[in-house]
Amino acid sequence: MAHSWKFNFSAVLSMTAIILVMLLLGMLPYLIGGEESKLSKNLTVNVEPSILDFWIARLILNILGYATFFVPGALIVRYLKNIKYNESAGPGCLSNAIVLCIFGKESEKSSSEEGTSNPVDQEPSSFSYVLNLCFCFAGLQGSYLTWGVLQERIMKHEYGKTATEQGEFFTNSQFLVFVNRILALCIALTVIFVRPQPRHTAPLYKYSYSSISNIMSSWFQYEALKYVSFPTQVLAKASKVIPVMLMGKVVSKKTFEYYEYFTAAMISVGVSLFLLTSGDDKKVHSNVTTISGVILLVGYMLFDSFTSNWQGELFSKHKMSSIQMMAGVNLFSCLLTSISLIEQGGFFSASAFMLRHSDFVFHAVILSICSATGQLFIFHTIASFGAVTFIIIMTMRQGFAILLSCVIYGHPVTFVGVCGILIVFAALYLRIYANQKKRAQKQRLQASASTSKV
């Protein structure tokens, strides 16, 4: 009896401390950034510079908002693991939900893994492999080329502008992230309930890692565009393949062949040459790269490379489907962005903007549909081919976007740009040839091993 009282008192004390930490962290972003809604009501009025005009202050504000969720969550996870809650949990729905969130279904994992292979490790025929790769390529390009056009339309278009009245821009990019994620979550949950899925074994909290890294990479990318020149943007985005490979060695302990590093460098050089000489003068909006811009770009590449590698690691370890991954990641993305928006007053300013401009609602819905479709292709591509292949496809998207612009609007393509395109295709050919040769060698080894056993 005394032991039970001591355990309950300890639990109550721990939960009280967690709640106090949550309240403290929740109040700070509100006190610092609560005037955001007031400033966004009339963007044409000149206001005195505030601390939020500095990107470091905005970063700290966002981190405080996310910490409202992560710090108490980490304390709860650590506490429940220390007391080994999964060993003493009862049969109720709440107990099962807690075990699923913190511990997963570890006891059932071994039985579910028997006879099941990871999609990345399967050896399909060459035709089906190439067909699936082309399907992923076309889906990613179509979804995100459309998404990019719509995003530029929303962020750079003055809503409500007439001959007599001045319009206003929509500036709350975090609200767009929330709208995109909530629709993707609804689609994923609908598919899970309608179509049978593999047994889920991963602890739910592990999805939060890729969710926060995805949100932070988007924030760093948007902020970096204010401080870096167009050539610097191009070089950073085109060279993402190499940071992704290096992050794969850290996160998943992956090893890469020399030809993979070589072709990755060729793709980066080729895309850079094409983008820098495309003649698309509209994108040259800045001629200066500052130290802040470089720091933000480094943060963007680090978080972005971690996201795809962590998702690939979860696919490899827990054998979930791409729909389950989509649901888990978007669940935490919705939680994180909604908490931050509530604390900073972003929901109020965005809702007021939507009431003033009905056409923005239509644009946001179409943008969310494109984002949800793109996520389906993202998770399917990472599950089937890995993080590096996915990043190569997305890197090429930058080139296709410029090429499409050149075709539609008649922008000139220089000789150096053509050489860049040829370098990219040569790198892709070498990569495909080497991968096919490696796959054929692996299949021969497997065939010889099975023959020797017989």
Query: Helicity level, as a percent range?
Result: over 70%
Spans where pLDDT lies below 50 across 5 or more residues: 1-7, 34-47, 107-121, 280-285
Largest sheet: none
The average pLDDT score comes to 76
Query: Count of helical segments?
Result: 18
Based on secondary structure, the structural category is: mainly alpha
Secondary structure: number of strands: 0
Rg over alpha carbons = 24 Å
Q: What is the first-to-last residue Cα distance?
A: 63 Å
Strand residue percentage: under 5%
**Shape assignment:** globular
Order of helices and strands: HHHHHHHHHHHHHHHHHH
Would you give an account of this structure?
With 454 residues, the protein is mostly helical. 77% of the residues lie in helices and 0% in strands. The chain is built from 18 helices and no strands. Helix 9 packs across helix 14 (322-344), helix 11 packs across helix 13 (291-318) and helix 13 crosses helix 17 (387-409).
